[in-house]
Amino acid sequence: MADELTTGDRVRLIALPAYVKTAEPMPMLRPPTVLSLGEEGVILGRQPGNEWSIRFKKGAYLLQGDYVERIDAEPVDSYSAGESP
Fold it and tell me: Known Pfam families for this protein (predicted)?
């Protein structure tokens, strides 16, 4: 899955690691409760070791690619876009 990810992709958290590392110049380990399953974020960049810097609602964190999945853009149907049938 991680090979399909690129900077700017929207991703969803599918599993929680034991700890999460902040994406700061001096990273800190945080408990996994700062994130929640299903939370969505945006990839800021790739780091060594298959880690991705991802911006979530509560901050930016470094996560392995195995913990996230890319969110595909959903097609817009004509009814939800406001057009009449």
Answer: CRR42-like
